[in-house]
Amino acid sequence: MTDSSFYTSQLEQVKRCKARILPIKGLNDASLCMGFTTRFGGVSEAPYNSLNLNFFREDDPEAVRQNFELFSEDVGVSLEAMVLSRQVHSSRIIRVGSEHKGMGILRERSYGPVDGLATDEKNLMLVTYYADCVPLYFYDPQKNAICLSHSGWKGTLQDIAGASVGFMAEAFGSRPEDIMMSFGPHIGSCCFEVGDDVAEAFFSTYSWSKDSACRNQAGKWMLDLEAIITGSLIQKGLKKENITGCPICTRCEHEVFFSHRGSGGKTGTGAAFLMMRG
Fold it and tell me: How many domains does the chain have?
């Protein structure tokens, strides 16, 4: 399900106030701290203006650190309590704990490339970063476990969404029917244009992916990553009513959110974040 009215009102408020944080709908638990950052309210200069949260761009590292401090103030969580991914468009997920606090932001990571983070510890904020790719927020209220995964088109082809469900089952004993999942802002089917090779890779991997695809006037395929991922999650046993979509397209709203395609490939990145308060 998708609550379009919620996101319409929240997006209007973000634009009006130049807010750093967009709330995320769907996991329905007051103990969770979760959201998605905008590009407003930071100190980075163009083309990374202004709240760039990616140290792997050609941005001033000190500006990125200051942006993280501003983000930390807004969410009320110290940088020492955060763990940052190191994304390579894979389907690798790791379990993190208190021993990983501050990694990727304040100190070096002890882990290698990873596109998903999971934990059952409270007061540990998972952080992943985006500029059109799909943020996936998972929560199991029965086992008190969370997972935050980055699903670009390559990660979607590798089914990082399904891998996240499997990881939670193995690491925490989660049952798919208990898991709640929400999408964050991402490139929509209105803007995700691909050639025949990429489209055929999706069609051969996910039989249902062609149901939501169409060709545009230029003959390119327009794919719906959210629909494709939703189909995978339902196959893995998630209940449809426990999956909440997000209608915000980051390319359409590239003045509000960082967008690789909306900027012609030169941009900063925003962040998804998820934490269980305790």
Answer: 1
